[in-house]
Amino acid sequence: MEKFVRQEGLVAPMDRANVDTDAIIPKQYLKSIKRTGYGPNLFDEWRYLDHGEPGMDHSKRPLNPDFVLNQPRYRGATVLLARENFGCGSSREHAPWALLQYGFQAVIAPSFADIFYNNSLKNGLLLIRLDAKTVDRLFKDAQGIEGYRLAVDLEAQTVTAPGGEGFKFDIDPFAKHSLLNGLDEIGLTLKHADQIRVFEAKHRERQPWLF
Amino acid sequence: MLPYSRGRIFFLIRPLHDMTARTLYDKLWDSHVAHQGEDGTALLYIDRHLVHEVTSPQAYEGLKLAGRKPWRVDSVVATADHNTPTRNWEKGLAGITDPVSRLQVETLNANMKEFGAKAYFPFLDRQQGIVHVIGPEQGASLPGMTVVCGDSHTSTHGAFACLAFGIGTSEVEHVLATQCLVMKKTKSMNIVVDGKLGRGVTAKDVILAIIGTIGSGGGTGYTIEFSGEAIRSLSMEGRMTLCNMSIEAGARAGMVAVDEKTLDYVNGRPMAPKGAMWDKAAAYWRTLVSDPDVKFDKVVTLNGAEIRPQVTWGTNPQMVTTVDGKVPDPAQEKDPVQREWMERALKYMDLKPNTPITEIQPDKVFIGACTNSRIEDLRAAAQVVKGKRVASNIKLAIVVPGSGLVKQQAEKEGLDRIFTAAGFEWRQPGCSMCLGMNDDLLSPGDRCASTSNRNFEGRQGPGGRTHLVSPAMAAAAAIAGHFVDVRKM
Ligand code: SF4
Questions:
Q1: Alpha-carbon torsion (A185, A191, A192, A193), positive or negative
Q2: Is B109 near chain A, with CB under 8 Å?
Q3: From B153, B165, B240, B406, mutation site for ligand 1 pocket: most ligand atoms within 8 A of C-beta
Q4: Residue A4's pLDDT band (boundaries 50, 70, 90)?
Q5: Angle at B129 between CA B100 and CA B72, to 5 degrees
Q6: Whole-angstrom Cα distance, residue B401 to residue B408?
Q7: Of A210, B43, B182, B483, whose Cβ has the fewest other Cβ atoms within 10 Å?
Q8: ipTM greater than 0.90, yes or no?
Q9: In chain A, which residues have their Cβ closer than 8 Å to the Cβ of B434?
Q10: What is the pTM of this model?
Q11: Has residue A55 got a pLDDT over 70?
Q12: Among the atoms of ligand 1, which is closest to the Cα of residue A90?
């Protein structure tokens, strides 16, 4: 897993509720057997005017000028501001891969879908839940103020606005620890291999038909 | 609550409850904790790992790169379903026209050869099919199990009182390597559907009505148990349809308690226990019910008798109404974020506010997907279609059975001939037009009556417009050329 370090970056506001993972990365790109190469196809159907397929030279495709990420003022954004239930739908881990490979380090929203939340943290993409009112405020500022940036501090669990105003966020302590240290979760779990084996033997005794 | 939602939500606070009483979810959870961490996370042991070609290649690659071996190969049951074509099977692998898709299917073949599995149903196998159809069909998902798959509709298997949920590719690798997942327990929700369902009202209508009520994020952070008279009355296949779309309500897992129907369905399946082992298993499985008077974190109650056939009008399953209803008017919505969302959806769907649902004319019809491609679904659709013809404005109507076994059964019953005589195409099994990773795609602007589970923008093909309905309603729309109340046919 990638380590998450303190981030200070440009904010892009994605002003839509219930953005699903089909929109984040359309199915045709799920045919790849690799973990990389998804950045150019983040939000593909909204971002380009034509229909994209794997293998195309995406840098030559016509951009949709109305799409928020195509506006010059949001170029290089690393913090995505989103609305409720972001990442709903399919379990495709390609969604956080695409967000990270595009350049986002953190997403702020009032709520996230469960599977997407897990998938993101496992890849070092920090998802921050702030209450709907605060998010609304941040939307107004990010849309109103050119070059609006936010600082995200995972250690302190804060998001800090340019004026110094801070917002606290919650995160599961285990996820925080893993993110801060970029831990190999499989390696961590395998430290308990003996316990898993003991459990497995008992489980087999109780429910032998499962084995 | 949104203006187009119906039903009532109750938050029950019951101070007097038995502290030792457990929900079905508690029981499934407790029986699988291999290690309890101090921070509230647990290592949850996984009994069944279902694998398909789209979300597994990177996991197997990760395993190889780290020099790790699968922990328990005989927990894995695999199939290729998302990329496989529904025609031209006689051409073999060459029938997969897209080389990128073909490579993904070949990669699964190679991984199965290298790492092994309890069972593998490859492309072209007579028992191949959609992973969530073949799991129960083969007895690979059994009551009391933890079932995972790199696919959000793994919730389907909860119909058998399993704790079944979708995972991402990193978690697929984690389960392969350790047989466990690092998990935190979710909150519990009981969705009670009381009363008797009316004629022509199916499990699909029930779950769409539930999603319309609690919203597509309503189940986020919860594990749902469905209960009540209307749920008990559903067949196992109906319960699978119900649990399948738990994820569309935001819940990773949904489940139904064990009853005699559960045992009857499981009994005799290829991977189900037999003889004395069956008796032992069945005795245990009968305990897989929530204890009476147990307290759930949230309770939602619907009256089953009030549920009518459902049709979605928007780009999220929550955007649903009854067949006798109308497309809602965003102008009536006070919340600006919701209003904007509805306006965007209507624009994408090319629909005007206040249009009666029965005036909407699909030009394609898809009967299939892990929601509704089992034998009872095909029987229900065939019954509507029998002796009639697909309307002239329908450009394409296809039936895609969920598995090879479903297909063979349907052909034995002559359902294929009923469909083809009416003008439907009868295809080979797979995910097909549910998400169009193969050649079965909507074209831009196409409007589809679909028995699948997602109506997201571009889901069935870029620019395609999806209306989610039950199999009988999809069949009725194909015949009438517009949505129609199947109860009046
Ligand atoms: S039928 Fe559709 S929802 Fe089901 S597993 Fe296949 S793609 Fe996913």
A1: positive
A2: no
A3: B153
A4: confident
A5: 85
A6: 9
A7: A210
A8: yes
A9: none
A10: 0.94
A11: yes
A12: 8
CB contact under 8 A, B170 and A119: yes
**Beta-bridge mates of residue B188:** B223
Residue with tokens 């895609």: B400
Q: Does residue B13 carry a pLDDT above 50?
A: no
Quick check: CB of B431 below 6 Å from ligand 1? yes
Which residues, in sequence order, are CB contacts of B234 under 8 Å at separation 6+? B203, B206, B242
**B52 close to ligand 1 (CB < 6 Angstrom):** no
For the record, the structure tokens of B489 come out as: 């046919």
pLDDT above 90 as % of chain B: 94
CB-defined contacts A:B, below 8 A? 198
Half-sphere exposure of B167 (CA within 13 A, CB side): 27
The predicted-structure confidence for A27-39, as pLDDT tens digits, reads as follows 999 999 999 999 9
DSSP string, A89-158: S---THHHHHHHHHT--EEEES-B-HHHHHHHHHTT-EEEE--HHHHHHHHHHHHHSTT-EEEEETTTTE
Both tokens of B154, joined, read 């793994």
Strand B119-121's sheet: what is its strand order?
A: B119-121, B76-79, B48-51, B146-149, B163-166
**Whether A90 contacts chain B with CB within 8 A:** yes
Q: A108 to chain B nearest CA, in Å?
A: 16
**Among B18-27, B267-276, B317-326, whose mean pLDDT is lowest?**
B18-27
Kindly report the protein residue whose alpha carbon is nearest to atom 4 of ligand 1. B370
Instruction: Tell me what the pLDDT averaged over chain A comes to.
Output: 95
| Residues of B whose CB is below 8 A from A31 | 54, 83, 98, 100-101, 103-104, 437
Rounded-to-integer distance, Cα B210 and Cα B213, Å = 5
Phi, psi of B385 (to 5 degrees): -80, -30
pLDDT value of residue B489: 84
Report the distance separating Cα B164 and Cα B154, nearest Å: 6
Does residue B417 belong to the interface with chain A, where contact is any CB pair within 8 Å? no
Amino acid at B141: S
Q: Measuring CA to CA, how many Å separate A64 from each of A10, A46, A49, B361?
A: 21, 7, 5, 30
Residue type, B95: G
Pairing of strands B8-10, B298-303: antiparallel
Would you say the CB of residue B153 lies under 6 angstroms from ligand 1? Answer: yes
- The answer for A 129-168 residues in CB contact with B (under 8 A) is none
Q: Ligand 1 center to residue A199 CA distance, Å?
A: 33
Report d(CA A34, CA B150) in Å as an integer: 16
Judging contacts by C-beta atoms under 8 Å, the chain A residues touching residue B55 are 91-93
Q: Which two tokens stand for residue B325?
A: 């209803």
- Residue A1 pLDDT class (50, 70, 90 cuts): low
Quick one: pLDDT at residue B12? 46
Atom of ligand 1 nearest to the CA of B52: 5
pLDDT, average across residues B238-252: 98
CA B174 to chain centre: 24
Cα B174–Cα B180–Cα B181 angle in degrees, nearest 5: 70
Look at A93 and B55 and tell me if their CB atoms are within 8 Å: yes
Average pLDDT, chain B: 95
Percent of chain A with pLDDT over 90: 91
Once rounded to an integer, what is the mean pLDDT over residues B92-110? 95
Which domains are present in chain A?
6-182 (3.20.19.10)
